[in-house]
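Lab notebook: predicted structure, single chain.

Context: the supervisor wants predicted structures on file for every construct in the current expression panel, including those that have not yet been purified. This is the next one on the list. No modifications to the sequence; it matches the entry in the shared construct table.
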Amino acid sequence: MEQIVAAAVHRAKKMLYLCGVLQLTAHGLFAVPFGEQLAMVSKSGTPTEIERFLKESYAANQNDPEYFIAAANYWWGIAQRIEISASPSEKGDFSVAEAGTGKEVGSISSLGKLHPEIPQKAVDLLSEGFGRNPYRFDIAMGLAYMLRDRGQFKACVAVLKKALQRAVSEPAKIRWRGGTLPEKPLDRFVPETLQGYTAGFYRLQTKEGDALCKELCDALVRAYPEHPYAYNILAALCSAKEDYRGCVKYLQTALKISPDDTLVILNLADSYRRMGDKGAAKGYYQRVLSSKASAEERAEARRALVELH
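Prediction complete. Output recorded below exactly as produced.
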Protein backbone atom coordinates (compact mmCIF):
# COMPACT_ATOMS: atom_id res chain seq x y z
CA MET A 1 0.00 0.00 0.00
CA GLU A 2 2.79 2.45 0.90
CA GLN A 3 4.45 1.81 -2.46
CA ILE A 4 1.19 2.49 -4.29
CA VAL A 5 0.66 5.73 -2.37
CA ALA A 6 4.28 6.82 -3.00
CA ALA A 7 3.91 6.13 -6.71
CA ALA A 8 0.68 8.11 -6.83
CA VAL A 9 2.31 11.05 -5.04
CA HIS A 10 5.26 10.91 -7.46
CA ARG A 11 2.90 10.99 -10.45
CA ALA A 12 0.93 13.85 -8.96
CA LYS A 13 4.11 15.88 -8.32
CA LYS A 14 5.29 15.12 -11.85
CA MET A 15 2.04 16.34 -13.39
CA LEU A 16 2.01 19.44 -11.19
CA TYR A 17 5.54 20.22 -12.35
CA LEU A 18 4.63 19.74 -16.01
CA CYS A 19 1.52 21.86 -15.60
CA GLY A 20 3.62 24.56 -13.94
CA VAL A 21 6.07 24.66 -16.85
CA LEU A 22 3.24 24.71 -19.38
CA GLN A 23 1.57 27.53 -17.50
CA LEU A 24 4.77 29.57 -17.52
CA THR A 25 5.13 28.99 -21.24
CA ALA A 26 1.50 29.71 -22.02
CA HIS A 27 1.72 33.11 -20.34
CA GLY A 28 5.12 33.95 -21.84
CA LEU A 29 6.79 34.10 -18.40
CA PHE A 30 10.17 32.62 -19.21
CA ALA A 31 11.66 31.87 -15.83
CA VAL A 32 14.35 29.83 -17.60
CA PRO A 33 15.41 29.59 -21.27
CA PHE A 34 13.25 27.27 -23.34
CA GLY A 35 16.05 24.78 -23.88
CA GLU A 36 16.39 24.35 -20.13
CA GLN A 37 12.62 23.99 -19.75
CA LEU A 38 12.63 21.22 -22.33
CA ALA A 39 15.58 19.53 -20.61
CA MET A 40 13.69 19.52 -17.29
CA VAL A 41 10.56 18.09 -18.89
CA SER A 42 12.63 15.48 -20.77
CA LYS A 43 14.32 14.37 -17.56
CA SER A 44 11.09 13.21 -15.91
CA GLY A 45 8.48 13.16 -18.69
CA THR A 46 7.43 10.38 -21.03
CA PRO A 47 7.77 10.87 -24.79
CA THR A 48 4.05 11.64 -24.95
CA GLU A 49 4.40 14.30 -22.24
CA ILE A 50 7.47 15.83 -23.89
CA GLU A 51 5.78 16.03 -27.26
CA ARG A 52 2.65 17.51 -25.72
CA PHE A 53 4.82 20.09 -23.98
CA LEU A 54 6.44 21.04 -27.29
CA LYS A 55 3.10 21.30 -29.04
CA GLU A 56 1.43 23.34 -26.30
CA SER A 57 4.48 25.62 -25.98
CA TYR A 58 4.48 26.62 -29.64
CA ALA A 59 1.97 29.48 -29.55
CA ALA A 60 3.73 31.32 -26.73
CA ASN A 61 7.22 30.81 -28.15
CA GLN A 62 6.91 31.79 -31.81
CA ASN A 63 9.21 34.77 -31.24
CA ASP A 64 11.79 32.79 -29.29
CA PRO A 65 14.50 31.32 -31.55
CA GLU A 66 15.57 28.98 -28.75
CA TYR A 67 12.20 27.22 -28.96
CA PHE A 68 12.83 26.22 -32.57
CA ILE A 69 16.40 25.13 -31.83
CA ALA A 70 15.45 23.02 -28.81
CA ALA A 71 12.38 21.49 -30.45
CA ALA A 72 14.27 20.67 -33.67
CA ASN A 73 17.13 19.11 -31.70
CA TYR A 74 14.63 16.95 -29.81
CA TRP A 75 13.12 15.49 -32.99
CA TRP A 76 16.53 15.16 -34.67
CA GLY A 77 17.80 13.22 -31.66
CA ILE A 78 14.80 10.88 -31.85
CA ALA A 79 15.52 10.32 -35.55
CA GLN A 80 19.09 9.19 -34.80
CA ARG A 81 18.00 6.37 -32.50
CA ILE A 82 18.79 2.84 -33.63
CA GLU A 83 15.92 0.66 -34.75
CA ILE A 84 15.96 -3.07 -35.57
CA SER A 85 13.37 -4.22 -38.08
CA ALA A 86 12.55 -7.07 -40.43
CA SER A 87 12.98 -4.75 -43.43
CA PRO A 88 15.79 -5.53 -45.90
CA SER A 89 18.95 -3.50 -45.36
CA GLU A 90 19.52 -0.45 -47.53
CA LYS A 91 22.55 1.78 -48.12
CA GLY A 92 24.03 2.76 -44.77
CA ASP A 93 22.19 0.04 -42.82
CA PHE A 94 23.59 -2.98 -41.00
CA SER A 95 22.26 -6.34 -42.10
CA VAL A 96 20.87 -8.86 -39.58
CA ALA A 97 21.64 -12.41 -40.73
CA GLU A 98 20.27 -15.75 -39.59
CA ALA A 99 22.77 -17.85 -37.68
CA GLY A 100 24.08 -20.76 -39.70
CA THR A 101 22.56 -19.84 -43.07
CA GLY A 102 23.71 -16.25 -43.31
CA LYS A 103 20.35 -15.36 -44.81
CA GLU A 104 19.31 -11.77 -44.20
CA VAL A 105 16.34 -11.60 -41.84
CA GLY A 106 16.33 -7.91 -41.00
CA SER A 107 18.31 -4.73 -40.69
CA ILE A 108 19.58 -2.18 -38.20
CA SER A 109 18.85 1.37 -39.20
CA SER A 110 18.04 4.73 -37.69
CA LEU A 111 14.51 5.51 -36.60
CA GLY A 112 14.55 8.53 -38.88
CA LYS A 113 15.34 6.43 -41.93
CA LEU A 114 12.45 4.09 -41.18
CA HIS A 115 10.14 6.98 -40.33
CA PRO A 116 11.28 9.99 -42.41
CA GLU A 117 8.48 12.15 -41.01
CA ILE A 118 10.43 12.35 -37.73
CA PRO A 119 13.56 14.14 -39.05
CA GLN A 120 11.28 16.16 -41.32
CA LYS A 121 9.71 17.64 -38.17
CA ALA A 122 13.16 18.88 -37.16
CA VAL A 123 13.76 20.35 -40.62
CA ASP A 124 10.36 22.04 -40.63
CA LEU A 125 10.96 23.56 -37.20
CA LEU A 126 14.37 24.98 -38.12
CA SER A 127 13.01 26.21 -41.46
CA GLU A 128 10.36 28.16 -39.60
CA GLY A 129 12.88 29.28 -37.00
CA PHE A 130 15.21 30.61 -39.70
CA GLY A 131 12.32 32.33 -41.43
CA ARG A 132 11.34 34.08 -38.21
CA ASN A 133 14.95 34.80 -37.21
CA PRO A 134 16.75 35.49 -40.50
CA TYR A 135 19.92 36.83 -38.83
CA ARG A 136 20.58 33.83 -36.59
CA PHE A 137 23.51 32.26 -38.42
CA ASP A 138 23.52 29.26 -36.07
CA ILE A 139 19.96 28.35 -37.04
CA ALA A 140 20.89 28.56 -40.73
CA MET A 141 23.90 26.29 -40.17
CA GLY A 142 21.81 23.77 -38.23
CA LEU A 143 19.21 23.70 -40.98
CA ALA A 144 21.89 23.32 -43.66
CA TYR A 145 23.41 20.41 -41.71
CA MET A 146 20.08 18.59 -41.50
CA LEU A 147 19.32 19.13 -45.18
CA ARG A 148 22.75 17.86 -46.20
CA ASP A 149 22.40 14.84 -43.92
CA ARG A 150 19.06 14.01 -45.58
CA GLY A 151 20.58 14.28 -49.06
CA GLN A 152 18.76 17.51 -49.90
CA PHE A 153 21.92 19.11 -51.24
CA LYS A 154 20.37 21.84 -53.39
CA ALA A 155 18.17 22.99 -50.52
CA CYS A 156 21.24 22.97 -48.25
CA VAL A 157 23.17 25.27 -50.60
CA ALA A 158 20.14 27.55 -50.97
CA VAL A 159 20.02 28.04 -47.19
CA LEU A 160 23.77 28.67 -46.99
CA LYS A 161 23.63 31.25 -49.80
CA LYS A 162 20.70 33.00 -48.14
CA ALA A 163 22.61 33.21 -44.84
CA LEU A 164 25.70 34.41 -46.72
CA GLN A 165 23.72 37.12 -48.50
CA ARG A 166 22.37 38.42 -45.21
CA ALA A 167 25.81 38.43 -43.64
CA VAL A 168 27.04 40.62 -46.50
CA SER A 169 24.04 42.95 -46.74
CA GLU A 170 23.38 43.47 -43.02
CA PRO A 171 26.48 42.34 -41.11
CA ALA A 172 25.62 44.23 -37.90
CA LYS A 173 22.50 42.09 -37.43
CA ILE A 174 24.18 38.69 -37.65
CA ARG A 175 24.06 36.65 -34.45
CA TRP A 176 25.41 33.27 -33.37
CA ARG A 177 24.47 30.82 -30.63
CA GLY A 178 22.32 32.28 -27.90
CA GLY A 179 21.96 35.49 -29.87
CA THR A 180 25.61 36.43 -29.27
CA LEU A 181 27.94 38.10 -31.75
CA PRO A 182 30.20 35.76 -33.78
CA GLU A 183 33.58 35.26 -32.13
CA LYS A 184 35.50 36.46 -35.22
CA PRO A 185 35.00 39.23 -37.81
CA LEU A 186 32.46 38.10 -40.40
CA ASP A 187 34.97 38.16 -43.25
CA ARG A 188 36.73 35.32 -41.41
CA PHE A 189 33.86 33.76 -39.51
CA VAL A 190 31.55 33.14 -42.48
CA PRO A 191 34.09 31.59 -44.92
CA GLU A 192 35.58 29.44 -42.17
CA THR A 193 32.15 28.26 -41.01
CA LEU A 194 31.08 27.36 -44.55
CA GLN A 195 34.37 25.59 -45.32
CA GLY A 196 32.99 22.32 -43.98
CA TYR A 197 30.19 22.47 -46.54
CA THR A 198 32.32 23.38 -49.58
CA ALA A 199 34.83 20.66 -48.70
CA GLY A 200 32.01 18.20 -47.99
CA PHE A 201 30.43 18.70 -51.41
CA TYR A 202 33.86 18.35 -53.04
CA ARG A 203 34.42 15.04 -51.24
CA LEU A 204 31.19 13.61 -52.69
CA GLN A 205 33.10 13.19 -55.96
CA THR A 206 29.92 13.46 -58.00
CA LYS A 207 28.84 15.85 -60.75
CA GLU A 208 26.14 17.27 -58.49
CA GLY A 209 28.56 17.65 -55.59
CA ASP A 210 31.14 19.42 -57.77
CA ALA A 211 28.53 21.77 -59.22
CA LEU A 212 27.15 22.70 -55.79
CA CYS A 213 30.66 23.06 -54.39
CA LYS A 214 31.56 25.50 -57.16
CA GLU A 215 28.29 27.40 -56.77
CA LEU A 216 28.93 27.90 -53.07
CA CYS A 217 32.63 28.73 -53.53
CA ASP A 218 31.81 31.30 -56.21
CA ALA A 219 29.32 32.93 -53.85
CA LEU A 220 31.95 33.03 -51.09
CA VAL A 221 34.54 34.57 -53.42
CA ARG A 222 32.10 37.29 -54.42
CA ALA A 223 31.20 37.95 -50.79
CA TYR A 224 34.69 37.72 -49.24
CA PRO A 225 37.34 37.95 -51.99
CA GLU A 226 40.13 38.45 -49.46
CA HIS A 227 39.71 35.07 -47.76
CA PRO A 228 41.72 32.15 -49.23
CA TYR A 229 39.61 29.08 -48.37
CA ALA A 230 37.21 29.15 -51.32
CA TYR A 231 40.08 29.59 -53.80
CA ASN A 232 41.72 26.45 -52.41
CA ILE A 233 38.57 24.39 -52.98
CA LEU A 234 38.10 25.83 -56.48
CA ALA A 235 41.70 24.84 -57.23
CA ALA A 236 40.96 21.31 -56.03
CA LEU A 237 37.98 21.14 -58.38
CA CYS A 238 40.21 22.19 -61.29
CA SER A 239 42.86 19.66 -60.31
CA ALA A 240 40.28 16.86 -60.24
CA LYS A 241 39.45 17.72 -63.87
CA GLU A 242 43.17 17.95 -64.75
CA ASP A 243 42.74 21.65 -65.43
CA TYR A 244 46.09 22.59 -63.92
CA ARG A 245 46.18 26.08 -65.41
CA GLY A 246 42.90 26.86 -63.66
CA CYS A 247 44.28 25.26 -60.52
CA VAL A 248 47.38 27.50 -60.63
CA LYS A 249 45.23 30.59 -61.19
CA TYR A 250 43.17 29.96 -58.03
CA LEU A 251 46.20 28.95 -55.96
CA GLN A 252 48.14 32.06 -56.97
CA THR A 253 45.18 34.17 -55.82
CA ALA A 254 45.10 32.29 -52.52
CA LEU A 255 48.85 32.77 -52.10
CA LYS A 256 48.59 36.54 -52.59
CA ILE A 257 46.06 36.62 -49.76
CA SER A 258 47.97 34.21 -47.52
CA PRO A 259 51.65 34.21 -48.63
CA ASP A 260 52.85 31.98 -45.77
CA ASP A 261 50.35 29.17 -46.36
CA THR A 262 52.67 26.23 -46.93
CA LEU A 263 49.89 23.93 -48.12
CA VAL A 264 49.03 26.38 -50.90
CA ILE A 265 52.71 26.62 -51.85
CA LEU A 266 53.03 22.83 -51.97
CA ASN A 267 49.86 22.51 -54.04
CA LEU A 268 51.22 25.13 -56.44
CA ALA A 269 54.43 23.17 -56.83
CA ASP A 270 52.46 19.99 -57.55
CA SER A 271 50.28 21.80 -60.10
CA TYR A 272 53.25 23.23 -61.96
CA ARG A 273 54.87 19.79 -62.03
CA ARG A 274 51.71 18.28 -63.56
CA MET A 275 51.72 21.08 -66.15
CA GLY A 276 55.27 20.13 -67.07
CA ASP A 277 56.81 23.37 -65.77
CA LYS A 278 59.69 21.82 -63.82
CA GLY A 279 61.42 25.12 -63.13
CA ALA A 280 58.41 26.67 -61.43
CA ALA A 281 57.70 23.44 -59.59
CA LYS A 282 61.26 23.28 -58.19
CA GLY A 283 61.07 26.89 -57.09
CA TYR A 284 57.91 26.31 -55.07
CA TYR A 285 59.19 23.04 -53.59
CA GLN A 286 62.32 24.91 -52.45
CA ARG A 287 60.06 27.59 -50.98
CA VAL A 288 58.34 24.89 -48.91
CA LEU A 289 61.70 23.74 -47.57
CA SER A 290 62.74 27.27 -46.63
CA SER A 291 59.48 27.98 -44.82
CA LYS A 292 57.95 26.83 -41.54
CA ALA A 293 56.24 23.90 -43.21
CA SER A 294 55.25 20.77 -41.33
CA ALA A 295 57.55 17.76 -41.32
CA GLU A 296 55.15 15.94 -43.64
CA GLU A 297 55.07 18.82 -46.13
CA ARG A 298 58.86 19.13 -46.09
CA ALA A 299 59.28 15.40 -46.68
CA GLU A 300 56.87 15.55 -49.63
CA ALA A 301 58.76 18.51 -51.12
CA ARG A 302 62.10 16.65 -50.81
CA ARG A 303 60.66 13.52 -52.51
CA ALA A 304 59.30 15.65 -55.36
CA LEU A 305 62.63 17.43 -55.86
CA VAL A 306 64.47 14.11 -56.06
CA GLU A 307 62.02 12.89 -58.71
CA LEU A 308 62.41 16.11 -60.72
CA HIS A 309 66.20 15.83 -60.96
